[in-house]
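Narrative of activities, Objective 1.

The group set out to show that a structural description can be obtained from nothing but a protein's sequence at a throughput compatible with the screening campaign. Below is one input-output pair from the validation batch, recorded exactly as produced.
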Amino acid sequence: MSRWLVERRLSQTVSRLATLREELAQVDEQLTVVADEAADHELRALVSETPLASRDAGEARKHADALLRHREHVLSSIQELQQRQDELLDSMSESA
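Output recorded for this entry:
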């Protein structure tokens, strides 16, 4: 692979990594709030013992779980891109 192509791909990878890291920070903030809200709804459901409170708690937990799955996906994408970045850097050093 030519050096300019490696540099181009490396630049794209670095840009995508920065974007994903920003997204991860946002998801972490949201997850803190949503998880606290879910815990609050679960506590209210235990105290009130009403079907409506139980439904609200279940919905809040589903939302928190979905956000957690999204966080795991973002982390996985970051790891893959870091590996790709390492491979591109190795490729650059071999061609130098």
